[in-house]
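User:
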Amino acid sequence: MACADALRDVVTEQFRLAKVSGDPETRAAVTLALVTGLQLSVLAGQCTGEEAVALLTAHLDGMW
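Assistant: Predicted structure:
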């Protein structure tokens, strides 16, 4: 759990520095949850890696 917390803290700080819209801590948690879900979707064959990257990119683009 400590590693997951550390990763969330790093992403939160990067979002804070980038001045994302909304709460950086919430944005970081949602983004990391999305990445986890996309990993499973790719492994299960529900989407390709390219589709997963496109979805993550769309999510990130919506933060500014």
